[in-house]
């Protein structure tokens, strides 16, 4: 349920002030509405919004009510920010993310990461739906992301392009350690304890711009380049989250197998993506909540 917002309490839009100040006033506005200062930020992928339902003592904001926030336009992305407690830890959860193909500039797709940082988030957990490129992967597998290939970045589409604001981070951030090693190990340990060994993987995620799914030649190429899964999100958020010093953990749910064979009758489609999300949602939620219960912050 969204909170009623009084127009006069809305801060100015981001375009009216510096980007940093704008992000800060949005964060302060959210905290002023009785949202608890979160330690963990969660981003739900397509059809994986159920993660947000797990939060207790919820304070919910519709994106349209949050000053300077973009709007969700994709089926399977509800478009609300949920604050609440998960396993005794204060969390904030995006039920719906922003993609390049929705027409948002890349900086806008990643704006929530900077707001997370200014809210006090230390660890970001991102989830997504992705097509499996690795032949060993099956639909329903959960892939811990260990690295990424930023395909739009090769053409200059990077959320950090433009003037750098040192208050967020350095001009040239390192990305070889983007996906926190300890959190990946924690996911492996928790996954094993939960009996997920048969469908828990670790691999490389490649982002493309979308919204068209990949051709067969593109899938073959991506696979040869070292990608295990392909999607249209996450990487830009990760870059911005790391730039401002948050720890990152990310998961892909393999919702469909990328088509690699010219004789195949399979066709990628968003209905299958959402359907697989429904089928694996419970296990994915359990993995994330068990991890959150064990994450330590100083
Ligand atoms: O990455 P998420 O947001 O989970 O969504 C994935 O699912 C959609 C395609 O079915 C694309 O948006 C792709 O990126």
UniProtKB/TrEMBL annotation:
<comment type="function">
    <text>The purine nucleoside phosphorylases catalyze the phosphorolytic breakdown of the N-glycosidic bond in the beta-(deoxy)ribonucleoside molecules, with the formation of the corresponding free purine bases and pentose-1-phosphate.</text>
</comment>
<dbReference type="InterPro" id="IPR011268">
    <property type="entry name" value="Purine_phosphorylase"/>
</dbReference>
<dbReference type="InterPro" id="IPR000845">
    <property type="entry name" value="Nucleoside_phosphorylase_d"/>
</dbReference>
<feature type="binding site">
    <location>
        <position position="214"/>
    </location>
    <ligand>
        <name>a purine D-ribonucleoside</name>
    </ligand>
</feature>
<dbReference type="GO" id="GO:0005737">
    <property type="term" value="C:cytoplasm"/>
</dbReference>
<comment type="pathway">
    <text>Purine metabolism; purine nucleoside salvage.</text>
</comment>
<feature type="domain" description="Nucleoside phosphorylase">
    <location>
        <begin position="40"/>
        <end position="292"/>
    </location>
</feature>
<feature type="binding site">
    <location>
        <position position="129"/>
    </location>
    <ligand>
        <name>phosphate</name>
    </ligand>
</feature>
<protein>
    <recommendedName>
        <fullName>Purine nucleoside phosphorylase</fullName>
        <ecNumber>2.4.2.1</ecNumber>
    </recommendedName>
</protein>
<feature type="binding site">
    <location>
        <position position="256"/>
    </location>
    <ligand>
        <name>a purine D-ribonucleoside</name>
    </ligand>
</feature>
<feature type="binding site">
    <location>
        <begin position="97"/>
        <end position="99"/>
    </location>
    <ligand>
        <name>phosphate</name>
    </ligand>
</feature>
<keyword id="KW-0660">Purine salvage</keyword>
<comment type="similarity">
    <text>Belongs to the PNP/MTAP phosphorylase family.</text>
</comment>
<dbReference type="InterPro" id="IPR011270">
    <property type="entry name" value="Pur_Nuc_Pase_Ino/Guo-sp"/>
</dbReference>
<keyword id="KW-0808">Transferase</keyword>
<dbReference type="Pfam" id="PF01048">
    <property type="entry name" value="PNP_UDP_1"/>
</dbReference>
<dbReference type="GO" id="GO:0004731">
    <property type="term" value="F:purine-nucleoside phosphorylase activity"/>
</dbReference>
<dbReference type="GO" id="GO:0006166">
    <property type="term" value="P:purine ribonucleoside salvage"/>
</dbReference>
<keyword id="KW-0328">Glycosyltransferase</keyword>
<comment type="function">
    <text>Catalyzes the phosphorolytic breakdown of the N-glycosidic bond in the beta-(deoxy)ribonucleoside molecules, with the formation of the corresponding free purine bases and pentose-1-phosphate. Preferentially acts on 6-oxopurine nucleosides including inosine and guanosine.</text>
</comment>
<dbReference type="InterPro" id="IPR035994">
    <property type="entry name" value="Nucleoside_phosphorylase_sf"/>
</dbReference>
<feature type="binding site">
    <location>
        <position position="77"/>
    </location>
    <ligand>
        <name>phosphate</name>
    </ligand>
</feature>
<feature type="binding site">
    <location>
        <position position="233"/>
    </location>
    <ligand>
        <name>phosphate</name>
    </ligand>
</feature>
<feature type="binding site">
    <location>
        <position position="46"/>
    </location>
    <ligand>
        <name>phosphate</name>
    </ligand>
</feature>
